[in-house]
Fold this protein.
Amino acid sequence: MALSRLLPRPNTRTKTTKESTLPKVIAFANQKGGVAKTTTTLNLGVAFKERGFRVLLVDLDPQGNLTMSQGLNPDAIERSMFDVLVHRIPLEDVIEQREVDLAVSSIDLAGAELALASQIGRERALEKALASVRERYDYVLIDTPPSLGLLTINAFVAATSVIVPVQCEYLSLRGLVQLENTLSMVRENLNPVVEITGILPTLFDKRTLHAREAVDILRENFGELVYNTKIAKTIRYAEAPVKGQSVLAYDPDGEAAMLYRDLAREVLNGAKPRQHA
Ligand SMILES: Nc1ncnc2c1ncn2[C@@H]1O[C@H](COP(=O)(O)OP(=O)(O)OP(=O)(O)O)[C@@H](O)[C@H]1O
Ligand SMILES: [Mg+2]
């Protein structure tokens, strides 16, 4: 399948769109579940902060995994992104200061799509909310749910770029085409600059031929859009959120932390990462 025809744009990773409008807003999206969207949002955000950037994470997933991964209980949260999007309360009212600033989610957010559906400007609710905190951050990283519904569309409208984590075990190229189709509709109607700036291979098990083949297939179809950094499969990524920490805090000198620092370097400068064994 010649997917490159469906993704005709050149590598734009080094191009800076919306240059004058700080911050850079990156949405992490893939409608497939369990591909490491949340893990990547948190750990890349913390890696950016280590490099001196001011970072805001936004949990736009009703599952609240990002919120939980910083030690907060989404069931005990009174005001969340739901109130920001639906009741238009100020975003700063739902920001918690943890390893990085985090706009929290709660289970209420599951009702946001329905509540927003009848509102005018429903796709722009997040973009509007972010305007009030724009001066305070260099990077806003948005974690999205595993669907291409209104919450994810809100993230695409607010974003300057999209990073797509892809699980090397169960590669879904059709899913990526679907995601790109949704993005191109957003580009036509709502946000002309948003595009995929990187595809991140995750849950990579270097011992299996299957995982290496999956990366080859991604490279054949998406070329330079595929990051050189591959996030290896390791239990550290599951252990850290249980402690309410990023892997960079949980095991600062471990390989898992290094990989997200490599990714940060690559996302920031397009630089080649370290060579991995
Ligand atoms: N590189 C990795 N190696 C091993 N386990 C990982 C890795 N990355 C993430 N995980 C684990 O895999 C599970 C899914 O990861 P995560 O929650 O980040 O995916 P997601 O795409 O956000 O999922 P969802 O679609 O449900 O929001 C989690 O338990 C996480 O701890
Ligand atoms: Mg998630």
Summary: Residues 33-39, 61, 63, 65, 146, 202-203, 231, 233-234, 237-238, 241 surround adenosine-5'-triphosphate (ligand 1) (CB under 6 Å). The beta strands are 24-28, 55-59, 95-97, 101-103, 139-143, 161-167, 196-202. The domain at 22-268 is CATH 3.40.50.300 (Rossmann fold).
